[in-house]
UniProtKB/TrEMBL annotation:
Domain tRNA (adenine(58)-N(1))-methyltransferase catalytic subunit TRM61 C-terminal: 58-239
UniProt protein name: Methyltransferase domain-containing protein
Residues annotated for S-adenosyl-L-methionine binding in this entry: S105, G106, F107, L108, D126, D154, D170
InterPro entries: SAM-dependent_MTases_sf, TRM61_C, tRNA_MeTrfase_Gcd14
Pfam families in the record: GCD14
Keyword Transferase assigned: yes
Amino acid sequence: MIKEEDLITLWIDTKRTYLVKVRKGKKVGSDKGALSLDDIIGLEYGVEVTLSTGNKAYILRPTLIDIYNGLRRPSQVLYPKDIAYMIYSSGIKPGDTVLEAGTGSGFLTISLAHYLGDNGKVITYDIRQDMQEIAKKNVEFLGFSNRVVFKLKDVREGFDETSVDAIFLDMPDPWNVVKFAYQALKPSGSIVIFVPTVNQIEKTGIALKNNGFIDIHAEELILREYQIKENAVRPKNIGVMHTGYIIRGRKSLKSSV
Ligand SMILES: C[S@@+](CC[C@H](N)C(=O)[O-])C[C@H]1O[C@@H](n2cnc3c(N)ncnc32)[C@H](O)[C@@H]1O
């Protein structure tokens, strides 16, 4: 049942999808008509509603993709396909503690916070306060403030934490952080790095090999959306052609026997 302060997706059509927090006395407007949020309190998610113009719309429970499309993103942010694989391949689980740099607009941060749950922690570093302010607003909007710690620090000087479960890097020169990541990680813990160019893969991969990481992989994910139209099903004309590469490895320990 929808309550005040809940997040909803107002789905009018594929081009008009709005992420909204339910507040009494507020309206959501669009060129297809407006919806008074008072009218949806107490309804079930999935319900069809009528806009002020008579057009129909639906109230959906937001997915992470809806959240991704609905939040502010002044910096280049990671794409859902990359975020999903970074989380999947890292081996983290709800309740874990992870480090992240840089925070940027906080899109990876919120995805990690969503996945780790109320007992988990994302400790996220950035050198830019203005970026972290935006990320903080996004984290607060989603109600994840208790799961995220923001730190204003250059991670090329090291992390403050030790024994963390995984480390995620999306910054220009991750190879300068690899030795500090090794110190901060639990043995067997994953480092997962995103870089936009092939040149960065080489430097990062070599740094991982030289600093005690094993099980190193560099991968690219390609996602194509298809239009669903009778007799004209084919890839959509417009789409994201390139995002970047994911490099990952695991912390090894020297033999103790
Ligand atoms: C591309 S953005 C990260 C986007 C983020 N992953 C997201 O999905 O919203 C890169 C961020 O790294 C930060 N950064 C760059 N060098 C850094 C460093 N040495 N230590 C900490 N943060 C750094 C930048 O200020 C910037 O905000």
